[in-house]
Amino acid sequence: MTGSPPRILLVEDNPGDARYIQEMLREAVSFEGRALDGGRAQSDANASGPADTLVHEKRLEAGLERLDELAVDVVLLDLDLPDSNGLDTLTTLLDHDDTVPVVVLTGLRDRNVGTEALRRGAEEFLVKDEINPGLLVRSLHHAIERREHRLEQKRYETLIEESTDVNAILDTDGAFQYVTPSASRVLGYDSDSLEAEAAFEYVHPEDRPAVREEFEALLADQDYRATIDFRFEHADGSWVTLNALGRNLLDEPAIEGLVVYTRDVTEQREYERRLEAQRERLAALNQLNGVVHGVTEAVIDQSRREEIEQIACERLAASDSYELAWVGEPDPETQSVVVRAEAGASEYLDRVSLSVDPADPRSGGPTGTALRTGEMQTVRDIGTDSKYEPWRGVADEFGFQSSAAVPIRYEENTYGVLNVYADRQNAFRGEERTVVEHLGRLIGHAIAAAERKQALMSDTVVELELRVTGIGEQFGGMEMPAEPMRFNRTIPVDGDNFLIYGTLPADELPVLEDMVAAVPFWESLDVVGEQVDDVRFELQVSSPPLMTEVASLGGAVQEVVLDGDDLKLTVHLPQDVEVREVVETVREYYDSTKVVARRQVTDRDSRSERLGDVWANELTDRQRTVVETAFYAGFFEWPRVSSGEEVADSLGIAGPTFSQHLRASERKVFARLVGEDPEDTEFTD
């Protein structure tokens, strides 16, 4: 009835009374805010249709035929008709159809007739000359409500017939709609106290993920038959093991819910656990414990992150329980998932691709979901699980039947995801799921410990990659460069003044000039060099808020890339700086800031090694000769002992050639000294 007015069958032979009732129904407001008769009252057998809301018949026999033809919600019945009289009229109608609610109409004022009509099965009794539109609507409404109550009673009877022990009806949110009274004997709860309660709250936390998977599968497929064992909390605080069977009866009018039939198998399962060793699960647990020990040893041995991840993958893949294990992490630029370590049937990884981009359908699988949510994802049957559709064909070739994607986490840091594949269905349940999930946390803890140890043993910093979206709004909606603009190096000059050097395509220079004019703390712009397609520029800034704040926390902005409407920042921070504080500081200026990556990088001052490498490997023999001759001839003294022309003469070369070799050598040395690539030098021998 929800969403449409009820269909009313009026059985009345008096034309005046019928017209009067029809007029009242036209004036009345229906249950859903519509006129009860929709403005269409049908008075003859040929005028009715499926959309009619008021159907009028004058004889009982015709009314019974209408009950057979139409889905009628309520009957308005006059007791005195041409072919039936008195209370027998009501009895005959109810004998014909006892499911439809009946409101009796009569001109008699004898209340005894009304009482007897109610006793024989009428829902309401109305005297015609006492009826008004409001009373009529309320009577119809109450009659239909009572019919719904009878359906609820039938629902109860259906459950009793189906019941084996404790049965329940759940709604689509997993709340109890109904529980059989046997719940008191088996679970210790009065059945009424469970109604409207969330069923999952009573399931043991370790069993809850598997139960929810079955519930969602049942909800998605009406033909699915759920079956599972799980622990349910007894009223006394203990745990009862239930074997549950589930059916989707949402379309069954007497049920309209998900039916769960359960029986107490606590003693049976306990007996089975004592007598039967579940070989596969125990073997998997033993092998998982070996992996745990291996990772623990890696931490003790002060292993690097790469070693920890590889050890975990190798131990898992070497066991009889698993076919492949690999560790992946998202690429911040492409948002694809890249492999960091793998062992086992690694050819599988050559044929699949994954993503964490919500717009990419490849992100909807276990790996992408685990990386986005930080929660373990399992696929109990790869052959049927819709989440595995993009990779099912390849997985079938390798015999994979179930998988787990376990986030590698420590505190708020997600280092990646550990993926494990088994050639058996329903893996990663119960204790096996718990241990695999624990392994992800252990690897995360191990990586964090290894990085801390590495930080103590070397000069390392925290490198933070940040992405700011919608940056154009920060510049007042002005045009952003179509090609990437790179701010490669920031040099503090004095106080809050900085020089920023970068590159951009030559045709984007006007855009940068407009930005300099618009940004208050961008003081001036100079072009310092031109290449084939790019321009090198120098930007002088004064008190830039972001750089100043990061510098006040002991950090430094290493690189900024403006790519369309996105701003990408790379920041180096000391080990003891609270990363969250830095991120919150950046968000004060750019509220759309997101952390893309966090890693430990070496920042050891190795200038002497750099210079030695340039001297030995980057300078040509001729350039080394020129530099050595100039040095020992006193060219670099002040005042100079020898001029450039004199050094050139001693080498037998022209003065310009001497200057070119010397300038090329100097550029290579200084390029490596400040961290640039010497191969970018413009001068060659």
From TrEMBL:
The keyword Kinase applies. One of its GO terms (molecular function) is kinase activity. Keywords: Kinase, Phosphoprotein, Transcription, Transcription regulation, Transferase. The modification 4-aspartylphosphate is found at residue 78. Residues 7-143 form the Response regulatory domain. Residues 226-277 form the PAC domain. Pfam families: BAT, GAF_2, HTH_10, PAS_3, Response_reg. Residues 152-222 form the PAS domain. Signal peptide: none annotated. One of its GO terms (biological process) is phosphorelay signal transduction system. NCBIfam families: sensory_box. This is GAF domain-containing protein. It comes from Halobacterium bonnevillei. The lineage of its organism: Archaea, Methanobacteriati, Methanobacteriota, Stenosarchaea group, Halobacteria.
